[in-house]
């Protein structure tokens, strides 16, 4: 349903409303009006038009959103070369080739798959995959990113130690990107995975005020209202001590915890 744009440029007499209908395209209540052209070569001509339809406005807004999304994706790819930040074996990780070795791991897989299935930018949800080494926390998280990329969303899988190294690299005068550009890319993606949180270096001499913990807070705070997946090998007490209470509180806000314990499937051949 469209308004006739040429009518907006033509002198017209007062119009009367014939009926009101709901546009199937934009969902707005639209008036079907009738009037006569007052001036010009078509003076006196009867016309009907729809007033209040926003289909064209919404189409243009959607096109603008897609352009901005594509620009962000190109910028993000330029800043983060995923192949250099993700282990080669992990690059093949999918939900299909994940093999849970117990019911707890099967439940975790099904929960992450459901997370992807129900994923909506307007309904942010966080996951924390916590448990022993080799149970597939990184595998499932990377699989989630891949699946959402296939659905047209943007996503990043970043090892926390490597992310912090990447931030430090921006302090080099020859860096191609600034810290602000890097943090903006991390903030804007639809899904961010922060893998191996708790394994990053922290200054043991300063429990509550060091560069690492400050940067972690900046990243996590910027993700408010966005989906984030965390993975860790630490217990809740150890993680709280490692990242500090403020970061841990921010991290757990709106976060569902998935416990993943079991044998290291990467060593099962032994």
Automatic annotation (TrEMBL):
One example GO MF annotation: ATP binding
Record-linked SUPFAM superfamilies: P-loop containing nucleoside triphosphate hydrolases
Domain AAA+ ATPase: 123-258
SMART domains: AAA (SM00382)
Record GO biological process: DNA replication
Name of the protein this chain belongs to: AAA+ ATPase domain-containing protein
Organism encoding this protein: Guptibacillus hwajinpoensis
